[in-house]
Amino acid sequence: MNLLLLEPNQIFNNQASIAGRQLEHLIKVQRAAVGDTVRLGMLNGLMGQGCIRAIDSEQALLDIELDTEPPSALPMTLILALPRPKMLRRTLQTVAAMGVKSIYLINSFRVEKSFWQTPFLAPEAIEEQLILGLEQARDTSMPAVHQRKLFKPFVEDELAEIIAGSQALVAHPIADRGCPVDCQSPVTLAIGPEGGFIPYEIDKLNQTGFESVHLGQRILRVENAVPALLSRLFPA
After folding, report:
1. What is residue 118's three-state secondary structure?
2. At a CB cut-off of 8 Å and minimum separation 6, what does 224 contact?
3. What pLDDT score was predicted for residue 218?
């Protein structure tokens, strides 16, 4: 945790109250004591610093100053075929840490129906993983995650509006063109499940305006492909 990410209800009169997981991190990992300064921020707000004025096993009280804008968001919309539940948690953390703020989890022929029943898709479970990513990256802006369980209606009814004004790319292992590098304009990126989108799905995406691109001869897991593609499209 590189940033204490505070909910608005934790802040009052330029002070913050810390408990639970965050307090445990302060005590066990940072070994914080009265007078120490820690980085913090308010969810969807400014970042800054807090000075610990009191700390015990129940809570810590900090005097805080929030005066810094969070990092700029990537100009990216990510459309991701729903991964396996455990991979979903890691991928959400990665995406949040890398600055993506708009995410669509969609269905695909190769997405198992049972994946949509996982408790990890509950709003509070998704938020938990996104917060872990934001804390890692020192960011406060919460990404928006949308779930779409039907592929064809999503592509035919919504996708054209989503990609408007952006370069639309779909990662596909047998594409002719390599993934572009250092994009200077917004991108909408679609990434399929393990094994990729099936030909019908690729055709539908291409018809909507997506260009198929690849990352080379190696086939990567989704959790590896996501950071590889983002880093290529928008190098640090």
Report:
1. coil
2. none
3. 81
- CA atoms of 228 and 93, how far apart (whole Å): 15
What are the DSSP E strand ranges found in 32-115? 37-42, 47-55, 60-68, 76-81, 102-106
> Which tokens belong to 139?
């960011």
Residues belonging to the chain: 236
CA distance 130 to 120: 12
Place of tokens 């997506």: 210
Whole-model pTM? 0.93
200-228 average pLDDT score: 91
Domains of the chain plus CATH, in order, are: 4-68 (2.40.240.20), 76-233 (3.40.1280.10)
Quick check: 191 pLDDT over 90? yes
Burial of 33 (0-12, 13-18, 19+ CB in 10 A): exposed
